[in-house]
Amino acid sequence: MDGWSSCLTTTATVAGAYLAWYAVCAWQCRRAMPALRLRGSHCYVTGGSAGLGEHLANLLAEAGANVTIVARNQDRLLAAQKRIQGHCADPEQQRIVAISADVANAAEGTRALHRAIKAQQGQAPKYVFACAGLTTPRFFLEYRPQDFEQTMQVNYFGALHTIQEAAKLMIQHEVKGGRVVTVSSQAGLLGIPGYSEYTPTKAALRMLTETLYYELAIYGIAAHCFLPANIRTPGFEHENQTKPEITRIIDGDDEAMDPRDCAQCMLDGMAKGYPNITSDWLGDIVRATCRGVGPANNMALDTLFVFLGWFLVPLWRVIVWWQAKSCRQAEAAQRKQVLSQ
Ligand SMILES: NC(=O)C1=CN([C@@H]2O[C@H](COP(=O)(O)OP(=O)(O)OC[C@H]3O[C@@H](n4cnc5c(N)ncnc54)[C@H](OP(=O)(O)O)[C@@H]3O)[C@@H](O)[C@H]2O)C=CC1
Ligand SMILES: CCCCCCCCCCCCCCCC(=O)[C@@H](N)CO
């Protein structure tokens, strides 16, 4: 009897101590973050001439923001600028600025920010969205060395240089409640065959954002990482031209999201103060499972997602393994061909 009661007391003490610790951690998750105030703010969107970036710019214009879009192709930029202007809540008051720059080039990318401030009558960006990014999926063995480097240059370094300069400018201009957003992907959380040129760039962004989540807080700047699943965009059409069949099957390309809904999802996540914003419940499971020691969105929900992951992750592995096995013959033939070249 004594043994039982001491066992129960120990279990209750451990459970109670854990619950208290959980409550402390959950409380720590409730970050005090100034509310999103888009009206009248300067929002800076790289990759704003197409896809996710353009639809985000539309939403920002509808909310009354001054928007700057950045991309390389001048014609597409000007066409997008016109379309975004059509979304302004108050066209007389709002400024929609378009700047041509290659964000992969550090000097060009940072110059674009300075040009944007000038064009926005001295107003520094308050919300910075690093959307520019791309992928050309292939089998690992088919890529040339420069393919990996170029994608890293645009997706990772493009976002990094923009965010670093933007943070400096926010501090200089004493912008209050500034936020930076990197656009990673669900593919920055898990490995998918066919995305070897892409997933490391998105994983790198995730870790950069986690670091900045803590570090930029020193200056009162919040950092978010957006990790969406497939989105129906021109970029998605481009990637589908080279996407191996196994990649198409695994990432379920028929379920691609509407880009406007996806952009809205990003803004909703920012409004809730989520450090890592996902676009669907599978993404939430993967995000919570991959969280490591990073910040949670919501301790209770994230714990539930991890629990669901216990059952779904092994299933996911079986599916990927089975897909890989079922196209092993084709892959082996391809590998032979590439290696014999
Ligand atoms: N579509 C999808 O399924 C998913 C996309 N993502 C990510 O979301 C982001 C947006 O994707 P999506 O909307 O599909 O992309 P799109 O290809 O549709 O649009 C990309 C935009 O980025 C611009 N851009 C590309 N490279 C550069 C560069 N070097 N410098 C400046 N601007 C550049 C493009 O204009 P221009 O070519 O004229 O420079 C265009 O405005 C990307 O980071 C992508 O990786 C994440 C998950 C899923
Ligand atoms: C819980 C365990 C189960 C895990 C299931 C996860 C399902 C993942 C689906 C993969 C979606 C990847 C989208 C990448 C999109 C992307 O970034 C490209 N289209 C590039 O533009």
TrEMBL record:
Compartments where found: Endoplasmic reticulum
* Keywords, ordered alphabetically: Endoplasmic reticulum, Lipid metabolism, Membrane, NADP, Oxidoreductase, Sphingolipid metabolism, Transmembrane, Transmembrane helix
Give the GO cellular component terms, alphabetically: endoplasmic reticulum membrane
Any one Pfam family here would be adh_short
> What InterPro entries does its record include?
KDSR-like, NAD(P)-bd_dom_sf, SDR_fam
Gene3D superfamilies, from UniProt? Answer: NAD(P)-binding Rossmann-like Domain (3.40.50.720)
Q: What class of enzyme is it?
A: oxidoreductase
User: Where does the source fall among the domains of life?
Assistant: Eukaryota
Q: Which ranges does the record mark as transmembrane?
A: 299-319
Task: Give the pathway listed in the UniProt entry for this protein.
Answer: Lipid metabolism; sphingolipid metabolism; Sphingolipid metabolism
User: Per its database record, what is this protein's job?
Assistant: Catalyzes the reduction of 3'-oxosphinganine (3-ketodihydrosphingosine/KDS) to sphinganine (dihydrosphingosine/DHS), the second step of de novo sphingolipid biosynthesis.
What EC number(s) does the entry state?
1.1.1.102
Q: What is this protein called?
A: 3-dehydrosphinganine reductase
Q: Name one GO molecular function term.
A: 3-dehydrosphinganine reductase activity
Q: Which reaction equation describes what this protein catalyses?
A: sphinganine + NADP(+) = 3-oxosphinganine + NADPH + H(+)
Q: Which GO terms describe its biological process?
A: 3-keto-sphinganine metabolic process; sphingolipid biosynthetic process
